[in-house]
Structure formats: C-alpha cells, structure tokens
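Can you give me the bound-state structure? Components:
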Amino acid sequence: MKIWDVILWALVLVAMPMGVGALVCRLLDVKKKPAALYLVGTFTQWALFQLVTVPMIWFQGSFRPLWIGMSLVLGGAALAGWYLLLRDLWMKRETIIHGERKKPEAAAVIVLVLMIAGYLYFAYELAVHQRPDKDDARFVAAALDIVQSNTLFRVDPSTGLPAARMVQDFQRDAVAPFIVYTAYVAKVTNTNAAIIAHSVLQQSLMLGMLAAYWLLADHFFPENLFAKCGIVILVFLMIIFGDHVAVLENVALWRIWQGKAVLAAIGVPFGFWAGARIADRPKAWKPYLLFYIVMLGFCFLSITGYLLGMLMCAGFGAAYGIRNKSGWVTLKCCLPMVFFLGYYLVYTLYN
Amino acid sequence: MLTKELTGVAAQGQYVFLGTYARLAWTIAALAAAVYLWIAHKEIRWKLLFPLLLIMAALCTPPAYKYCFGRYFRLFWILPRGVLTAMAVIDLIRRFKNQWIRLAALVLAGAIIFLTGTSWFNDESVTPAYNAYKIHDELPEICSRMLKENAHPRAVCTGDWAPLMVRQYSADIELLWGRNAYGFTMPIEPEAAAVFQAWNQEPHDWDTLLAYMAENGYDYLCTTNKTNRLKRAAKRNGFKRIITGEQYWLYAKKDRVRNDK
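Here's the bound-state model for the whole set.
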C-alpha cells in the first residue's frame, strides 16, 4: 500500500461525497454538519449511479463512458460543493473563531472520546480480520469483471464466460447494481476490486454507519453531546457483542461491502433520518426531494431496497398524512414508488 | 384468524432473522424500548414510532405478508431494534441530573451488553486477514502462478472456497464452474454441469474431470483434495503438481508447465 493510494481512496470515498453533499445540502437546506455532508453526498452519488447505470446495463453499454462521465459529473459537483462550503466558512470565520460556544460538560467529552476510541477499535478489528462470504463470488467477482472486461453485466461472475442473458441473482444485481460502484472506485483508484470491497470500501462504509447513527441521534437529541455519543456507543456495542445477528445492524459486520448490508447498516437509519425531516416541514418540497434521493439510493443498493423503500414511503406517507390530515402529504411521501415501479418494469422486461 | 398466522409470521421472522428463538430478549427489549419512547418522547413517537407502527401493521398483516411481500425475512430489517433500544436507554439515563451518574449509568448499560453477549471478533466468526484481498492466504500465489504462465488461464477449482475466491483475485482466470454449480448466481452451462455431476460423487471421479480438462484446454486444477486417487489420476491424464500448499494444491498440464519457477 502506497501513500498515494491512500490519498486517492480518501479523495474518492470521503472528499468527493462530502463535496457533492455540500452542494446538495446547500440546495436542499440541510444543515451542513460533516455527517450530513458525507451521507447526503454518498446517497446522491448512488442515486445518480442508479439513474444512469440501469439504462446503460439494459442497452448493453460499456463501462468506460460510465466511469468517465460519472467522474466528470461527480468531480465537478464535488469541486463546486467544496468551493461554496469553504467560501461560506471563510465568510463566517470571525463568528466561528470568536463566537460564543457552550462548553460541553466533562462527562460528555469523556463519552465523545470513548465513542471515537470505540469506532477506531471497530475499524481496526475489521481491518485485521476477514470473514469470507460466499456471495462475494458474485458481488466482488462481478465488480472485477466489469473493470477488466469494460462491460456491464455481460460476464458470468462464476466462470468468466460471456453471459448470454441475465437471470437469477445476476439479473437482480443488474437492477440494483451496487457492484458498479465498487467497480467504479476500483477503476478510478486503479486498485483491485477485491481490495476495494474487502479492505477499503469496508472502512469508508463503517464511517457511513457511524454518520448515519450520529445523524439519527442528533435529530432526536439535538444539542446533547452525551446522548448522541451514548446512542452511537450502545449501537456499536450491540453490533459487536449482540450475539451476531441479534440486531439488524449486525449484518454490517459480515459483509458491509455488499449492497444489502449497506442497506441494513446505513440505508435504514439514514432513511429514517431523511423521513423524520419531512415531519418538520411537511408543506415544503425540499425535505421530500432529499427523501427521494435516499429512496433512489435504496434501489441502487439492493433489490431488497425496493421493498424496504416501498415500506418506508408507505409508512411515512400514511403516518404524516394522518397526522397532518393531508392526503397530499401521503402522496408526496409515496412518490418514489414511481421509481420502484419503473425499475420493476425494467426488471420484468429483462425476463 | 389473525393471531395464529401473525404469531407464526413473527416467530418465523424471529427465527430466520436470528437463526434461533433464544435471542428473543433483544426483540423484547426493543419492544419495551418502543413502548417507553412512545410514552416519554413525543418527537420520536410521531416521527419514528408511528411510521414504524404502520409499517409493522402492513408487514404483519397475514395476507399482505404472504402475498405482497412473499414472506421475505429481510423485510424485518426495517425495524431498527438496536437503535430504538439505545435511544430508550439514553433517554432514561439523561434524566439523571448529575453528569457522573449519567456516565456511570452509560458504562453500566454498555457493560450489560458486553457481559451478556459474545464478541463477533472471535475465532469461530473471523480469521486473521491474510492479505488485502481478504481471500485464503495461498490463493494469491496460486492465481499468480497461473497468470504468469498464461494471460487468460482456464482452470477448475474444487473445495469449498477456491471456486468462489479465485475470480476475486483476477477476472482473467476462467473457470469451468464456480458457485453456479450449486445453483447460485447464474445457471451452469449444460456441458459443465454434466462434468460436475460426473465428478461430484463419492469417491470423486477424477479421471473424467481431468480427461475433460485435458481435452478442452483447462490447464489447471486447484484443489484441497490430497488423496492418492487424485495423484494417480493426475499422472494418468498428464497433470503435474506445481504448487504444494498446506491448504491448496495446484496441478497443471505437463506441457503447460514452465521450468522458470
């Protein structure tokens, strides 16, 4: 591992999503907290990948225009986002440096340190251990095939032979092609897709998981550092010591580089955060737009994302519709079902 | 009518989700947490629990679960049991006025999880990472050897993991079968299926496999099998062992073997 590789991975997996997130957060009135920047940017990337990749797979496009085009669009958006973010910070520098800040209590600082230490322990353990997963024969091998063959879902990952048509698991992966993101990161960082999935993406997704729980805790316990850190610590403890599969988040440990695990570990808590934001401003459009982005991200992650997304839309739509006595609120929450239906049609057309 | 099916669905979901009925305590804790949060935290009630309640209602309605959702256990992932439990515990803890009591209570809650559970990072669940690819430690050497001799080697891998891991090292290696032989990912080619069927019996029919490989340009056999039957069959069919690892052996067709080891 060279230092250049680490810088490149950090740029593609952290700096780029944060830049994209800065731009989208600005457009959608989301408070520019680091966790929000990271996850909003990440899901915007995935939503964009979903919109572009599925038709490309359908029309048997090649991988090159996809990764070049996405690099230009995402890179441009990230640069714009970072420029605007840094400009804002520069303009507010006096307030940031000399403004009054409430001093956190000692216990909260201790819990913050514990949370960071716990996260680092978690990341270290994941880095030095491995747990082979049989599904990687399809997820990781397919990503490698995409990079090396410059095609999108035209090679059977089990054998490397040309795939005459897409059926079974392979077909499902083509409708929720998170594999392509792994391939994209592998390509632009010139790293083997297995190293990206098992060693690099694993770490950035763990960061995403931390950010997702932090955001959810921050939403319900704002201005309470102790509570936010405490929730993250307890969830992480449950993940590590919760008897393997006792909480849904555990699936993250097995195979966080696979789309369905990303959905469970990051998608579900982030989806609840995005949904809960709608309740604050049910009449405005912007919280809904962010929710739609997250739901499109769900589609990209896994075929299960279609079902979970549908349930989430229906749940939030019905709950907020009842609470606000507004069918319009329900309708707006359920609008992402159009994506689900559209992709479902694509899925059936593959048959 | 509802209760019987519903109980079955919940129990089945619990079983599939957890792999056991024994860890029901986590679900009960999450339910208790949800009830507590419903009463104590108005914002969580309306923003999180009410939508979750409706989702649960949809999921656990027997006809909906059976016909719309196809009894798919992963749908239960949508119930964030861990975070609900954590939120309820923290909401209780933050009511203590003294910060040091709050800290002690949090440590106690953490200790309960720690002491009643088992670390996921144990010898049964994980192994040390042998390499950055995180595939079995002898496989990179085996794959490199094949790729050194042939830019697009064709191979057969046997054993639990080699057929799944070799193509994670390089997509340039073509396999006669992989996980598709066991009904996953994509259907196996009829010819490969026939060879697989012929070989996959006890004891393995190595002669059929190696003869097919020799005739069809599959120059390498990566295997965990170290029986004399294989050794003899390899000799008969013109294959030579070129890597003898602790876990994996690599055979190659004699005319493909380079001497520049």
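A couple of observations. Strands of chain B lie at 127-128, 154-157, 174-175, 220-223, 239-244, 249-253. The mean pLDDT of chain B is 87.
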